Automatic annotation (TrEMBL):
Keywords: 2Fe-2S, Iron, Iron-sulfur, Metal-binding. The lineage of its organism: Bacteria, Bacillati, Actinomycetota, Actinomycetes, Pseudonocardiales. Belongs to the bacterial ring-hydroxylating dioxygenase ferredoxin component family. This is MocE family 2Fe-2S type ferredoxin. Residues 5-101 form the Rieske domain.
Amino acid sequence: MPQWIAACETDDVDPEDVVPFEHAGNAYAVYRSPDDAFFATDGYCTHERELLCDGLVMGGTIECPKHNGRFDYTSGKALGAPVLVDVRTYPTKVEDGTVYIEVP
């Protein structure tokens, strides 16, 4: 059954940035959009399992630091070679300055 897990504080993530989060041995990435919305994806690129938290956030995309593959972090959609497989996304919510993600 899915559960809401506290991932970070809102102040931990600058606008247009990403931070790592780990829970139960799984890596996640938490993003803050330019308009202060929060999103979460799996923590690894689907191409060669590079950590996305080391990548570059631009607008609504995350660029993998290894081969510059890009994903739309709001939907998980792979935006072209070398990444061809979408990254999994997770629902988020903010309560009292804490960002929660819903994990399986």
